[in-house]
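SECTION: protein entry
WANTED: fold as C-alpha cells:
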Amino acid sequence: MNALILLGIDTSGKTASASVCTETAVLAQTTVYTKLTHSQVILPICKDVLNSAGLELSDVDVIAAAAGPGSYTGLRIGIAAVKAMCFALDKPCIGISTLESLAYNVSLHRGIICAVMAARLDLVYCAVFRSDGRNVTRLSDDRILPLNELISRLEAMDGDIITVGDAAEKISGERFITAPPHLKLQLASSLCAAGFAKEPYSPDRLEAAYMEVTKAEKDLKK
C-alpha cells in the first residue's frame, strides 16, 4: 500500500508555508517570511514543493489548510486555494487549528506546550497541549484571552512550559522556554503532522475559525 501523501498550506500568519509529507517523512517544504500578500506567493510555493518532491498535484491524497486563528485575510487566501484545488481534483481536505499546528513544531518537548499568537491590543490566541516527545495531546480549547490571564493560568500548571508562536516571547520566567527562531512560527510540515491524526472531509465543509467577529461582520450589523 502506498504511503498517504499530504500537501499542507499555512497562510495564517507572517510566514507563507507549504509542505508535502508522508506520515514518516517531509518530502519538501518551503517557508517564506514575506512582505508580499499570501495570494501572490502561496501557489508558486505549492508548485515549488511539488516539483522538489517529484510529484504532481494529482499525486496528493489530502490537502491540509490552517483553519485559524490567525490573519483574517491570510486564512481566507489559504482556505480558498485549498478548496479550489480539492474541488478541481476531487480531493478531500482537512482544516487544522493554527495553534495545534504550532504545537507540533516543538513536539519533541516532553511536557506542556503553549501555542500563543498575537490577536489585538493585549489579547492573544492561545491553546495548551502536552507532548510525550512525539504525540501531542490537547489540554485546552483554542481561546482568546488577555495576556496576563494566560500567564496566570500557565503559572498555576506544574513543570516547564515551552511557548511557540509569534507572541511566545511575551511570556517569560524561569519555567518558560521560548521556541527557537526556526520553530517559532508556522510550518506547513507541522500542519501535515497534525493532519495525519485527523479524518479528511469534503472541501465544502472547510471553514475558517476566526474566533473574533470580522470587520465585515461588524459593518453588516451597523
Q: What stands out?
A: The longest strand covers residues 123-132. Helices lie at 38-52, 72-89, 98-105, 147-155, 181-184, 188-195, 215-221. The two ends are 56 Å apart (CA to CA). Residues 90 and 138 are 31 Å apart (CA to CA).
